[in-house]
Amino acid sequence: SDSVTGQTVVDPKGYLTDLQSMIPSHGADISDIKKARLLLRSVRETNPNHSPAWIASARLEEVTGKLQTARNLVMKGCEMCPNSEDVWIEAARLQPADLAKSVIAQAVRQIPTSVRLWIKASELEQEMKAKKKIFRKALEHIPNSVRLWKEAVELEEPEDARILLSRAVECCPTSVELWLALARLETYDNAQRVLNKARENIPTDRQIWITAAKLEEAQGKTPMVQKIIDRAITSFTATGVEINREQWLKDAMETEKSGSVQTCQSIVRAVIGYGIDDEDRKHTWLEDAENFANQDAFECARAIYGHAIKTFPYKKSIWLRAAYFEKNHGTRESLKSLLQDAVRNCPQAEVLWLMGAKSEWLAGNVKSARDILSLAFKANPNSEEIWLAAVKLESENEEYTKAKKLLQKARQSALTARVVMKSAKLEWQLGNIAEAKALLVEGIEKYPNYPKLWMMSGQIAQQERLIDSARDAFANGLKNNPTSVPLWILLARLEEKCGALIKARSVLERARLRNPKCQELWLESIRVEKRAEENKSVTMPIAMPMMAKALQECPQSGLLWSSAIFMENRPQRRSKSVDALKRCEHDSNVLLACSLLFWTERKLNKSREWFNRTLKIDPDFGDSWAYAYKFEVLHGSQEQQEDIKKRCCAVEPRHGDNWCRVSKDVSNWRLTTEEILERTANLLPIPT
């Protein structure tokens, strides 16, 4: 307080804050500090040459805020333990910058062979010239320290660094890093000499050989690259050095990332078969290629596939994996070249021919695609897949007459139920109902156990409003195919549409008896009951008890759980979704339902995150693409909408109730994937 007026002139808050800052922030009890101090003094007195005791004592005083005491203690430690570099470094740390320099100068005079002290001395200097001077002085005392040479070289310009490295490799001839650094700074001819010297001094290090190969590749001398790597393996084998396959493959990956493609492929070819039994080769190589592809080392993966194909030229599975790799990570030309080689070696592999034809067709080369398929016909004259691919190619290009002729030929030479079905479907799509019906009658006679023929027959009758004929087609189809779930559902929907709710229920009940634990049939039964409740056709609700029964019979059904979530009242939906995720964690239907749930709660970022998770887990599920697109239309940007469209067109989804309602509709057969996506999204209700 003021002594004259008696009033306070001290701000109480500020005063307390100042007091607070004076209290050490170590958080320990005062008595504990006294104990520690006592113990450390005892250690120092017992063994005054024990440097950790002096360091610990100084740090204790520093923590308690007594910096000067700490400095005094550590300097006393330097006197008692003059040969301990740790004490000197601690002393330099505790002293102010100007005094620290003199402490370190004293230290290096005392221990001139300590690398750490010289490096600490350079760190304390601010000017580059002084740093360089310290390192030069240090190297006079310790010329064989690799670390000092590296630190010194880093401070120099390229030309001075090269001169310094020339001296460094003389003083440290076993340091690979110094040899490689020197080789990088030299011209091509001098670099060769440097690497040859390095190999003489360190004959067991692979990095020198790999650098030599990279050097040749950089000069465009590709044939030399493989020779150098092969020579390295031979040299190591002769001198008894272990060839660590994993380590070499890791080096190949790093080499690819540094841009030396030929070297990385040469390494892979040289070591890929090393230490592997003959029967394990195919499996191990394909696994290695996949691992490389996952780590974006595409050239290494390509080299493995190339080697595997050379070793097993007639293995369809290897060609197929290589083709998928080129499709995802290569160019169209590389895929075309690979598939041409593939079909030469495996002419009976239909899938390879079809991949080649599709690749050409997507690139717009319809003629080339036709040529590939005609060659495929010669190799596989009665292949259903190739016939149908040729038909699809012609119909997609609106060459319907050619497509019909091809189907006619296929029925003569390779008649199957699928060929008949495709023939009838094309006629139906083109509006030739009579021809389609005639083909179906013929097909049903020959293949009564193929349910799709019965389905099409019933659907055409429905289109012509011949309800009794449609009912007969579905019923007769079920006599021959009692396990066909889509047929049961079509018959039940027909009865429901005609207003015969009891008949629809009866059909679905019979279906469930014939096909127990079938999630699709249970879901259809629940939907029938829900529609009946909405139309006030029933007096008491049946859908909820039926869902409970369905989940008892099919507890792992994601399809049922996803519907169950939205059948609950709003407050119960969250807990129902948790139960669903516990049962079916990776089911796309459940993940989609959770995405929609977040949407209804207006948690848009979370909803988008879950949509992406759904699309990743099952890209073939069209409903998730349609909902994700609708979500982006309402809440996203133009870029996000385009991204969904692009990704959807790339995978071409084919499943999902809402998706198939649009894509399988005969009137929509000319729609592209993008148009189906937009149309399906428009039909979907906004979740509530």
Automatic annotation (TrEMBL):
Transmembrane residue ranges: none
Q: Which residues belong to any copy of the Pre-mRNA-splicing factor Syf1/CRNKL1-like C-terminal HAT-repeats domain?
A: 287-441
Q: One of this protein's GO BP terms?
A: spliceosomal tri-snRNP complex assembly
Q: Which Gene3D superfamilies match?
A: Tetratricopeptide repeat domain
**Which InterPro entries does the entry link to?**
HAT, HAT_Syf1_CNRKL1_C, Syf1-like, TPR-like_helical_dom_sf
Looking at the keywords, is Nucleus present? yes
- Highest taxon of the lineage: Eukaryota
PANTHER family named among the record's database cross-references? PRE-MRNA SPLICING FACTOR (PTHR11246), PRE-MRNA-PROCESSING FACTOR 6 (PTHR11246:SF1)
Q: What is this protein called?
A: Pre-mRNA-splicing factor Syf1/CRNKL1-like C-terminal HAT-repeats domain-containing protein
Q: Which organism is it from?
A: Medioppia subpectinata
